Amino acid sequence: MLLTGARATGKTTTALQRVSQADRLDVPGVAAAYRADPDAALRRASRPLLLDEWQEVPEVLAAVKRVVDTDATPGQFLLTGSVRAELAHEMWAGTGRVVQLAIHGLTERELHHHLDVTQPAFLTRLATTGLTDLRLPEQVPDIDAYVRLGMRSGFPEVAYRNRTVQGAGIWLDSYLDDLVTRDAAALEQPKNPAKLRRYLQVLALHNAGIPTDATLYDTATINARTAASYDQLLQNLYVLDKVPAWSANRLRSLVKAPKRYLIDPGLAATAAGLTAIDILHDPNLLGRFFDAFGTAQLRPEIALMHPRPTLYHLRETHGRKEIDLVIDMGAGRVIGLEFKAGAAPTRSDAKHLLWLRDQLGKDFLAGAVLHSGAHVHEIDDRVFAVPLCALWG
Q1: What is the pLDDT of residues 273-317, one digit of tens each?
Q2: Is there a contact between 25 and 52 (Cβ–Cβ < 8 Å)?
């Protein structure tokens, strides 16, 4: 299994908890042994084995392939390494034999130790039993608390260290500096880190939004080609998630532009230079921050579901109808989610979910307005008002 994900999301730390032996191939002596005879080195090692920084000895991947071809027992090897290695041709030796699993930032469910693997995922419960199996935590956050949680970030180095607001901001700012210099340089781009940092700032100000490509590159004062290369770079570094537009034959006039998310709301706030007060005093920023925080809670859960749902967004031309997330659960059946940074959602807040339900009929499994209040209730058939914290209750 190859663990992927943004830097500092805890890939190696997670892997170390699940192996009998860990060989770091960035250690010269260890690397020398594997270069000399990777097959013999693997035979000597205990299983499960972590091969950390495997790209330092790329021939080890072919040796792993040979072992797995002989003994297909799953879980023998965990691999962690650089993004550059994942994108290189050497990676293809693992096709069909190395399963990739993305490691995301920590969720509130993890931080509250509510990890009952026997419990169905939130989306599954919403689609099958509605409100029946949803629970809220003992302490229901208010909107100020939601913003604090998002600003704190889900990177383990911040979330587990109980840093001050200033301390978390310093760490996240340093992360961004490394991202636009060292991490980008590892992929042999960009030529101008200052431009990439400026583009990141523009993305962060539009986080969880649907800006046009021209809006982004004009605001960042770069050209379209450079912006496209930066988008790809940031996706390769696992810090940008572009959620595609949803479409259906029965619906017309839907925009095709993707919805862009920086994967961590705290990182986005730091990139944009925003404080909690800035966000709380701007309804547009607050709404998109709440969306970004909620979506960050969903991504790791979706990654473990089978079959894996696919995230989309929906927006009609001119924004007449818009749904934050349309989640394809398979076979064309969908769940719709709206994020509302308000404590008392009304039927009006669910009007686009109700419209989508009426358009899709039985293929609409459920819809929810995920809000910042404390009450759960049914708005209409298959459409509910649910506090966002039900994701970790």
Answers
A1: 999 999 999 999 999 999 999 999 999 999 989 999 999 999 988
A2: yes
Q: Which strand (E) or helix (H) includes residue 354?
A: helix 351-360
**Nearby residues of 376 by Cβ (< 8 Å), 6 or more positions away:** 131, 134, 136, 384, 385, 386, 387, 390
Counted residue by residue, the chain has a size of: 393
378, 347, 323, 273: CA torsion to nearest 10 = -100
Nearest C-alpha neighbor of 54 from the set 30, 20, 19, 21: 30
Give dist(CA 300, CA 296) in Å, integer.
Answer: 8
Return the residue matching tokens 């809670």: 297
- Partners of residue 333 on adjacent β-strands: 330
The token pair that represents 269 in the structure block: 């706030």
Q: Which amino acid is at 159?
A: A
pLDDT (tens digit per residue) in 13-55 = 999 999 999 999 999 999 999 999 999 999 999 999 999 999 8
Residue 162 has phi, psi (to 5 degrees) of 55, 45
| φ and ψ of 315, to 5 deg | -150, 130
CA atoms within 13 A on the CB side of 348: 2
Residue 339 phi, psi dihedral angles, 5° rounding? -105, 125
